[in-house]
Design brief:
With 228 residues, the chain is an alpha+beta fold. It has helices at residues 30-35, 59-64, 97-102, 156-168, 194-208; strands spanning 10-19, 24-27, 48-51, 73-78, 92-96, 112-115, 118-126, 129-133, 143-153, 176-180, 183-187, 212-216. The radius of gyration is 22 Å and the shape is globular.
Length: 228
Amino acid sequence: MAEKIKFHDFVEIEYTGKLTDGTIFDTTKESVAKENKLYNQQVKYKPAAICVGERQLLPGLDINLVDKEVGKDYSITLKPEEAFGKRDIKNMRIVPMNTFIDHKLQPQPGLQIDVDGEMGIVTRVSGGRVIVNFNHPLAGREIVYDYRIIKKITDAKEQVELFLATSFRLPKEMLKVHVAENKANVEVPFTLPESFLDILSKKLVELTGLQEVTITGKVETMPVEAKK
């Protein structure tokens, strides 16, 4: 009997996202990216590794993985609320012209900008006011995802590395993970509040089934003053 995916399984998945008219906008496959003029040399095209149910994919695609079989091809059409959300008029905002002047930018329709960490696209320039659309470019659109679950990831060390690398958006090579006797010790390359580390450790115990997960941040050493 074919292996089926459960909630909180770790998996590798290949996928291609497209609009309902067939226009491809996202893929994990290098060949598909090249065929559709999406290829980016800075991107590593390979199956995505995720934990099912942890919203590491679009909500509708994420939940759709449950009960699917490994190695079988699937296709799903996602409504806007299951994908990039509905278009919200509240995300159409007026940004003062001075903001652009301060950043030495000349606003014009189509210009993509970052305002306080939020990406938006200039839609209209009128006098001293600039209207910026902070909706996702695909907000309000139905989209289609073709996908195949390549395999389940069952190794605890790999699961810990995967979850933390995805959560912190960093290469897993930057994490030091040691697993022995159903316990994991993890060192991350930065400092984090102890309360956050505690929550993260409990989450990893829940997801991986390990008995204990201990996470420590990078230890910052104080410079030693030379003796006179």
